[in-house]
Amino acid sequence: MKPFLKYLLTIMILVHGADSYAIGFQVLRDTACTGSPYLFKDTSTPPSGLTIVSRSWNFADPLSAGGPTLTTVDSVFHSYLSVGLVSPSMTLTYSDNSTVTYTIPNPILVVKSPTAGYSVDRPITCPGVPITFTASNTAGVSSIVNYNLNLADGSPSSLFVDGTPIVYNYSIIKKYNTIYTVSDLNGCQDTASIVITILPYPKIKFEPINLSCKDSAVVYENRTTNIGQFVKWDWLFFDSVSHPLPRSGSGVNFTYTWNKAGPQKVFLTGTTATGCIVTDSLIAAVDTTPELVLSLKKDTTICFGESVELKTLGSDTIFYSSELWMNRISGDSIVLFTPKNTYTYTVYGKTKNCPKTGKDIKINVVQPMLIPLSLTPNNILRGDQSILQVKPNAVFDSLKWTPSNSITCSTCDSTGASPQISTMYKVQVFYSMFSFPCQIEDSIFLKVDLACTIDSLKIPSAFTPNGDNINNEFYVKSRLLNNVIAMDIYNRWGNRVFNVSNVAPNNPLNGWNGKLNNAGEDLPPGMYVYNISATCLNGQTLNFQGEINLIR
Hints:
CATH topology of the largest domain: Immunoglobulin-like
Oligomer: single chain
Strand order of the largest sheet: 41-45-44-42-43
């Protein structure tokens, strides 16, 4: 409150004996404003030899609490509460305890002061956020002529013009004690203050909780600390296809489906109750789900032992549900399958942020047939014949024997073979499954003896005449022989126990049954000596001997 520059001075001159002295006080000249300090200054001159000990002031203010104000100094302030004409008085006490009272002859007019009122839309906010100051003054008995707002940041004071609000923003984080002063035509004024608090911007944070993949929903989770201080959230997505889409939400989670792959930007903006607007952003690496292109059909058929090559395009990362019977030719994009059974492989493609996608490849394997071969016999003399036979374990389409120039039927499963020399015969058997042709082959060797020798004969080393009809007789077996001239059996003491002559070979009835001369008592087990003379098919005569073990 600035004091007025004009004063009202009233002095009363008194005479005391031969001396004169003065009593009076100095006040504001015209009026006093309610609520504003009003100065009273004693201008009295005490009688000679006395001093003023104290002053008692009566401000004639009916609404002021308490009695007169007692002071020793010559100046005092009083703020009037009542309105109207008042006649204040002052009583002086001298050093001889005498008193004198002085009442101002011209009353002071006390008028109602204006009320400085203003408000702000946000007393607490962040740097750069506009704050609106709005005046709400109340005039006293006269119009307000001066409006002064001190923003407390060193900037020039602002004036409310015609009551228009003032919009201002602070840039430094601190507290500002703003002061608003108004004054009217009577020179009365009032002040008010509001503390503005500028806080640091809060920090927000958000992250996707699943991978960003085109055409797939991505959930973005708001992980801001003290999330409750925010009253609004806005999400903004740029995906190069759609326009930015501001989305308001609760601020916890938000789901968005990207329309295009590539690096896309996401913004989250939060607004606090104090008007602070904070934005955070991230780059979303949006991938696409791979579209696999396979060189094989979904179902492929091969013969057992064959391989099939698979080329896969459409994904940088390729992997398989199983690597059983698989070999890599070029990384994971070109592989070779050689399954032993019908098997289904799943080929997967994957990008970093998209789920894997897969395609099945079923490889049907036509299992091989069993084609056991037989030769009866497998050792012949030149000019003789052997029966060549194959017995597949399943239905087949056809077969072919090679070489075919020495057999009776090259496409039959059983055929005669009469080669001039030892020969390896090969058979190819053709069969199919799901109309898919396969073949398998095997071979067998037929030996052709060019001469009749003892080594070419089949002479057993033991026999078991026990009545089980298995290996019960000892006889000469060979397709090389034409006639057994004589066969004699001797025990260890040199006694002949069996003899036969001029009989056909390869006949058990012409052999020894383990009895004395085949009709007597059973001979004891043990080693016996044989002498055999035989004629070969080529007319050659063979004489040989050996031992036969009789086992019971």
